[in-house]
Amino acid sequence: MGISQNGDLPLLSIHGFKPLDLDDLREQVHQTMDFIMDYYKKVESFPVLPSVQPGYLRHLLPATPPAEPTTFDAILCDLHRAILPGLTHWASPNFFAYFPATLSSAALAGDLLASAFNPVAFTWLSSPAATELESLVLDWLAHLLRLPSCFLSSSASAATRGGGVLHNTTSEAMLCTLVAARDAALRRSGGFAAAISRLVAYGSDQTHSTFFKACRIAGFDPANVRSVPTRSESDFSLEPARLRAAMAADAAAGLVPAYVCATVGTTSSTAVDPVGPISEVAAEFGAWVHVDAAYAGSACVCPEFRQYLDGVERANSVSFSPHKWLLTCLDCTCLWVRDTRLLTGPLGTDPEYLKNGPSESGSVVDLKDLQVGVGRRFRSLKLWMVIRTYGVANLQAHIRSDVEMARRFEGMVRSDRRFEVVVPRRFALVCFRLMPRGGMVEAQADKENRRLLEMINASGRAYITHTVVGRMYVLRFAVGSTLTEERHVASAWELIKKKADELLGVEVSPVPNI
Amino acid sequence: MGISQNGDLPLLSIHGFKPLDLDDLREQVHQTMDFIMDYYKKVESFPVLPSVQPGYLRHLLPATPPAEPTTFDAILCDLHRAILPGLTHWASPNFFAYFPATLSSAALAGDLLASAFNPVAFTWLSSPAATELESLVLDWLAHLLRLPSCFLSSSASAATRGGGVLHNTTSEAMLCTLVAARDAALRRSGGFAAAISRLVAYGSDQTHSTFFKACRIAGFDPANVRSVPTRSESDFSLEPARLRAAMAADAAAGLVPAYVCATVGTTSSTAVDPVGPISEVAAEFGAWVHVDAAYAGSACVCPEFRQYLDGVERANSVSFSPHKWLLTCLDCTCLWVRDTRLLTGPLGTDPEYLKNGPSESGSVVDLKDLQVGVGRRFRSLKLWMVIRTYGVANLQAHIRSDVEMARRFEGMVRSDRRFEVVVPRRFALVCFRLMPRGGMVEAQADKENRRLLEMINASGRAYITHTVVGRMYVLRFAVGSTLTEERHVASAWELIKKKADELLGVEVSPVPNI
Q1: Strands A256-263 and A288-292
Q2: pLDDT digits 0-9 by tens, B188-227
Q3: Do the Cβ atoms of A128 and B52 come within 8 Å?
Q4: Which domains does chain A have, with CATH numbers?
Q5: In its UniProt record, which GO terms are filed under biological process (chains A, B) (predicted)?
């Protein structure tokens, strides 16, 4: 390399820094893969929930960034020394907390490719393949879930403009549809100043907290966001009659019902709101219906679970998160809407620096106009690779295996008369508790179950979380972490029984190390 | 594996599907890495902007998902056949469009690890290491940018509650701070119903379109979002006097100035709004000031560019995107706020199923309360690994090298009297155009430059985008794609000159293949 035209020295001879040197790349990924393989081999033996104290990391890593490079070996050492001890091991087969965040080798490979290509598909032109693969894969998943054709972009015409988009979380899907519904309601109610304070959004007391937060973000008056009470008699689902009563009261008071969130598989107990009847009620008031199937949507790839989406043909939008239960790792939420124009209205932008022929022709979708941000990862790649690599049959087997493991766990709980299953199990979550013993008030039962949970989690050999349904403190056992096999479920049950023995003061005979 | 307790068959014998089989994982990542290495070796030779037509992918891939598994070889074949021809090659060294989306081997390795661990750090407890590394790395970057200590979580106390969070895009950072500012303004103005229609947000006509969109999402009346005009005499920066005039007029009309967005490095032309003086004006009206340094923030790791953030100590929040110019691949935006409590107020949630001891103790940060969603990737890992692997000195060298390449390109443009540099170059973006020739009106010059851009991009040998500043159609040449070296910049200039020759009808002598 010689001196350039204008006499300047070649830059590489000035510093020589190549952040994407191919030898470095191969070596670093190779070392990283060794680390990951080793991690997966050992993760079963790690305490699922770490025992570190708040602030622990500041004692292990320097407070200021290093001036000079560090060897990759030293970085991986620090991962072992400082990061792993503070990780909650979501990938552990003994992880039964929250809902699982599942992954797969195909998703890891797909996400690596997305990082390597690193296109920013805000407009079609800025990466046609990324935009078109996203539309295609969302149509594939819509087929899998047997969504009505009004949600497919391949069925879109001048009259119907359905389609899908990948968001990072359900919250973003809710927020974008709330904004669409809000602006539609404002248009028919006299405009912003006249109506913004009168718009109302509805969920149940089981709807995810992020719905209420999304309403706040979207500028709904917090006083106008309803949480309709549910009952154990209805399995904690949103009852259409109660919804109608709430909407009618608001309408009578001069308010404008604008949005209803129906949940298929609530976070507490996987309750299912009846989508069809709820949509009928909402239609009476002209309100938007969004179906949040974040967790249970994945199960609907199996025909036997599809019934829970019945009525979705009447909804305005539906979302679910393959990063939860469809093996795609974070983050990956699918949103379908019946009319994309209602989203691109409030969310569309057209700055000069992004103007281009295809966008102006109207023949393409610019996905930035269906989401909060402008930038976006090539998320469809991992989803496409998961579906291709495994095929529908394996995805169904994956769901069925988790559900079957949960069914067996439920059987174990039912076989021990100290415990009860609190709500019917529908998918792969079992909600159970120690029953109140003779003369015990509920508050005492809650305290005992809370203590049991603490003892289980402190053991490090399983991680389970809790909820409160029907005023009862309940343990949630969510089967589905990718590496979980039957033996882990069985071990967890042995652990739970042993801790119950300890808690209830039963003389404990030696238990084999599980 | 035998028959289980209750007589059920072991599940693995039922289907045997293991989505995270370690042999598959090693093999698939190995094949993927071969693909990626091959891609990087060849990417320089690919047309940067693909020539596919809208809908091209539907002709190449099946319309419905496959029932059965596909071999990984076949999937990689499809990547070659169907995806690569439709990719806009952001990783190409000949990519000079938009702003670069940079990456590095360390970021790829870090992101792979994040996918493999796949923790969902909504609360501290759900993954202490992910939460604590995020706080630490944001403090590191704050040190690097010499942000005042009020933005550091390590300096937080009962009185000051500064801190940072990683978002996926600048849009999310703007949205969250808009919601915080909105609710603060509502509190001091009589509450939601009384004031929501009176809140006003301010940017300039150069502020990114996503700001105006974020205002709409956050429920600001579109009629109350101001785009203050800029002038070429002030290098298209937001002038404090004009801002004051706009705010005063609104205040006099009974409106409530709530938020000002100051940009350091606008998208069109890398204009820099004067953060200090703007903050002074905003303070007169009690409005929040957010500093959007999405692109140019990365440059501020070099002391010689830090001046552009002067005054940030008076702002309420500041964000920049390492996924743009700091080698971390998508998506990764840093947001710092002076008082995290103003975010956790409107964005905080506390559902029963996430309640836990550390959160209740108040001794930890739950990052879900500083963002739109609940779920979140372990994004800090790649950022930490980039800083560790390269060290501050190399990050500075990386920025300086890009800026130097842009400076040299600017010199080339200036040396050709057919062209002019339209706005002063500050970072690594050069805005230039063919000057209007004798008697040509501006509209003709615009048309000529548009045609030149089309010819350059149609060649496939470089990708450049445009903007309009000061009513002029201008070509944007953004240096900084990770693989770009001096020779690519020189080749791009030769290409531009050649296309200008063709366009202007100069007799073309044979040009060596570049």
Answers
A1: parallel
A2: 999 999 999 999 999 999 999 999 999 999 999 999 999 9
A3: yes
A4: 20-49+88-103+392-514 (3.90.1150.170), 55-83 (no CATH), 119-378 (3.40.640.10)
A5: amino acid metabolic process; carboxylic acid metabolic process; phenol-containing compound biosynthetic process; primary amino compound biosynthetic process
